[in-house]
Amino acid sequence: xxxxxxxxxxxxxxxxLVAMASRYATGGSYLFPASHCDTCQTPLTYWQLVPILSxxxxxxxxxxxxxxxxxxxVGVEVIAGLLATTVTDSxxxxxxxxxALWGFAALCDWQTQTFPGWVSWLTTGLSLWGQSPVxxxxxxxxxxxxRLLWPHWHHPxxxxxxxxxxxxxxxxxxxTSTAQWLLAACLLGLWQSRAGTRIAxxxxxxxxxxxxxxxx
Length: 216
Ligand SMILES: [Zn+2]
Prior knowledge:
mainly alpha, 9 helices, globular, binds zinc ion
């Protein structure tokens, strides 16, 4: 029963993160207006707000204009639900919160190749939870260095956000796990990359992080 409740909480959070990322991409407010179809602007009724179930009942389409609802919406709702079921104590809660915040950043990055900077600070704060003052100092110095250096680098080979997620991940999981995580993410990135084009790397890092957490 507890797992079902956790799954429902998780899928609702996933649904919220997809909506927030979509509003970040279009420059809209996170709070207003209420949830609506992005094409015909029709407000969603109460049952259309129920994650997973509404997508299934609507067969993936807006009831008014028939526009397809992106399949990633229901994908994120299911994965967020599964992630929530892995919460058993304060440590796993911190990890799931960390994954949810970076998941939001990855959804933003996927649409705009940018994400809100506060995600890096919040997630680094989570990964520094319970760590020694020396680790705290190292984490903050690394993050500040990235923030100060990257604006001066015109064609960086890697985005500052990707690097910030790597710092945060290594603080949380250590060096060996970070190497395994990066290897899987790079393989995903290579598989989808085309010569001469920039890819949003955060979604690959995120898929790899969720994979390692759910599988292991
Ligand atoms: Zn519509």
